[in-house]
Amino acid sequence: MRASLLAGTAAAALLAVLALAGPLALPDPDLPDYAAKLLPPSAAHPLGTDQLGRDVLARLASGARVTLGAALAVTALGAAIGVVAGGVAGYARGPVDAAISRVVDVLLAVPSTLVALAVVGALGPGLVHLVLAMSVAAWAPVARLTRSHVLTAATRPDVVAARMAGVGRGRVVLGHVLPGAFLRVLAVAALGLGETIIGLSGLSFLGLGAQPPTAEWGQMLAESRYDLASSPWLLAGPGVAILVAVSAAGLLSDWLGERL
Q1: CA 235 to chain centre
Q2: Where on the phi/psi map is residue 91: left (φ > 0), alpha (ψ -120 to 50), or beta?
Q3: If pLDDT is split at 50, 70 and 90, which confidence band does 233 have?
Q4: What is the pLDDT of residues 65-75, one digit of tens each?
Q5: Where does the ABC transmembrane type-1 domain lie (predicted)?
Q6: For residue 260, is pLDDT > 70?
Q7: Is the pLDDT of residue 189 over 70?
Q8: pLDDT tens readout for residues 89-112
């Protein structure tokens, strides 16, 4: 358990430094230099240059802000909607619970990528549209978990005592029920963060996310496929970054699960 925490924290810290400090210390990631196209890794360009002579490390750092920022936005938005929807369903019960539960069942039955593709198809490509599209499916597992916790917590002695003392429903839910669901939701969100990073990168690879010249890991992978045989370093940077990010999310989720 401690090893998972240390490894996950170290990987997350590395990505945070890359995303926050990298763009401040590295060259302009969008500035082309046609005289330095497809240069191999060197002291001047630790990860080489791409097809337009742009520094790959600089674009990797800039892409970390875009990819990780979008993934965190999807996770936070999905968790917020899921907690509210699950809490309302579990506490209101009756027709409200049935209606929300049916929507959750439908979203869980359909692959999240398919839902995202449908929403992006309706809204058009773009990073903001992609974040909204993936958030549509991201809240369903959180809502299911929150509803289950609320139903279980309704019969706890502290909740029953609070209701008998005349405490309002809103204060009971906010003060007694939802705090207990926080760690569980956090663990599910951390695990879902890795899946979200993969999903964002995959859809950006297809051209549905951030548009050029904005750097994004999935888009960088898409651009590298044309020169993969002669310039494999174009693939290594974003590929390893995605692997590290997904591993960090999985390790931290494992630690949170053990803490529960």
Answers
A1: 21
A2: alpha
A3: confident
A4: 999 999 999 99
A5: 64-253
A6: no
A7: yes
A8: 887 888 898 999 999 998 888 888
Q: Using an 8 Å Cβ cutoff, are 194 and 203 in contact?
A: no
Alpha carbons 110 and 118: distance in angstroms, whole number: 11
User: Hey, which residues does 49 pair with through a beta bridge?
Assistant: 55
pLDDT tens per residue, range 75-89: 999 988 998 898 888
Query: What amino acid occupies position 141?
Result: P
Beta bridge partner(s), residue 55: 49
Core vs surface per residue 71-84: b (16+ CB within 10 A) or e: bebbbebbbebbbe
Q: What is the dihedral of CA 148, 151, 152, 154, to 10 degrees?
A: 150
Under CATH, to which class is 2-27+56-259 assigned?
mainly alpha
Sign of CA dihedral 220, 221, 226, 230: positive
Residue 72 tokens, joined: 């965190």
- Every domain of the chain and the residues it spans: 2-27+56-259
Output the CA angle 120-124-126, nearest 5 degrees.
Answer: 85
Question: What's the pTM?
Answer: 0.86
| Contacts for 83 with CB less than 8 Å, ≥ 6 apart | 142, 143, 146, 178, 181, 185
